[in-house]
Every structure is written in C-alpha cells, then in structure tokens.
C-alpha cells in the first residue's frame, strides 16, 4: 500500500504532465501556424506522450486504491521557437533531476518505481533532442534552422 507521500508525488506528476501536455499542444499549433510542420509534429508527439504519462500515473493511483485529482500545472506559452525549445530543455533538466529523486521514494513499490525509471529514459531522450536542436541553431543560425523545420 502506498504511503501519503507517494500518493502526493503521483498526483503532482499527473497534474504536471497534463499541464505540459497542454503547453506542448499549444506550442505545436503556434509552430504549425508559423509554417514549421516538422517541428510542430515533433512538439505534438511530445504533447501526446506526456498525456499518456499522466494517464499512466492516474491508472497507477487507481491500482493503488487512490483517487486521482483533476487538475493541471500551469506553464507559460511562448511564441518564439527558440524560447520554446530553451524553456523545454531547462524544464527537462529539472524534471530529470526530480525524477531521479522520486525513484528512491518508491523503493518499496517496484511497479511504480519501474514506471518512473521509464519516464526518466523518455525525458532523457527528449532533453537530448532539445539540446541537439538548440545546438543546431547555434551552428547553422536561427533562420537556417527554421527553414529546415518547414
């Protein structure tokens, strides 16, 4: 049986991922309307992945006999592609650090611990992608990068 701290962590992650899912979905639409379809598709894929992660957490809460909470953490919306990527990268680094801490909170719950370990892998892949793309902006210039995203 999960303890109160574990339940609090799970509920907070669900709300966080619902919030970032919405943020990424809005950013995908902003980017799409600017004409950068490739990047918009990637951003929407990330939004969908985060929505699924929130759903997994809520399903786990139900498996543990707990009630998920309805809500979402609020995140800022940006109009500039570089700002979107930079903010997402910064949040990704913070998120990975916190996920690594959280894993230890579930040392007595292998199923939830494993779920969070999978989230760490996903977050690492996403932050690597973001770092790579911000590096491309530095190497080839912002306008050239945007042209490749059309």
TrEMBL record:
UniProt-listed InterPro entries: Bacterioferritin, Ferritin-like, Ferritin-like_diiron, Ferritin-like_SF, Ferritin_DPS_dom
One annotated GO molecular function: ferroxidase activity
Enzyme class: oxidoreductase
EC number of this enzyme: 1.16.3.1
Pfam families, sorted: Ferritin
PROSITE patterns referenced in this protein's UniProt entry, alphabetically: FERRITIN_LIKE
Keyword tRNA processing on entry: no
Residue ranges occupied by any Ferritin-like diiron domain in the UniProt entry: 1-141
Annotated positions binding Fe cation 3: 49
Keywords on record: Iron, Iron storage, Metal-binding
An example Gene Ontology CC term for this record: cytosol
Residues that bind Fe cation 2: 50, 123, 126
UniProt xrefs under SUPFAM superfamilies: Ferritin-like
Transmembrane segments: none
Reactions mediated catalytically: 4 Fe(2+) + O2 + 4 H(+) = 4 Fe(3+) + 2 H2O; Fe(2+)(in) = Fe(2+)(out)
GO biological process: intracellular iron ion homeostasis; iron ion transport
Domain of life: Bacteria
Residues the entry annotates as binding Fe cation 1: 50, 123
Family the entry assigns: Belongs to the bacterioferritin family.
Cited function: Iron-storage protein, whose ferroxidase center binds Fe(2+), oxidizes it using dioxygen to Fe(3+), and participates in the subsequent Fe(3+) oxide mineral core formation within the central cavity of the BFR protein shell.
Name this polypeptide is given: Bacterioferritin
């Amino acid at each position: 049986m999960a303890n109160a701290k574990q339940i609090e962590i799970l509920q907070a992650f669900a709300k966080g991922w619902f919030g970032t899912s919405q943020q990424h979905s809005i950013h995908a639409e902003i980017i799409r309307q600017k004409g950068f379809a490739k990047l918009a598709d990637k951003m929407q894929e990330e939004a969908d992945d985060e929505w699924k992660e929130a759903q997994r957490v809520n399903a786990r809460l139900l498996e543990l006999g707990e009630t998920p909470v309805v809500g979402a953490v609020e995140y800022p919306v940006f109009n500039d592609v570089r700002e979107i990527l930079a903010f997402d990268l910064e949040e990704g680094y913070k998120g990975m650090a916190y996920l690594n801490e959280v894993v230890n909170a579930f040392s007595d719950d292998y199923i939830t611990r494993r779920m969070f370990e999978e989230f760490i892998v996903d977050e690492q892949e996403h932050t690597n992608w973001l770092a790579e793309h911000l590096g491309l902006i530095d190497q080839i210039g912002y306008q050239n990068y945007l042209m490749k995203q059309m």
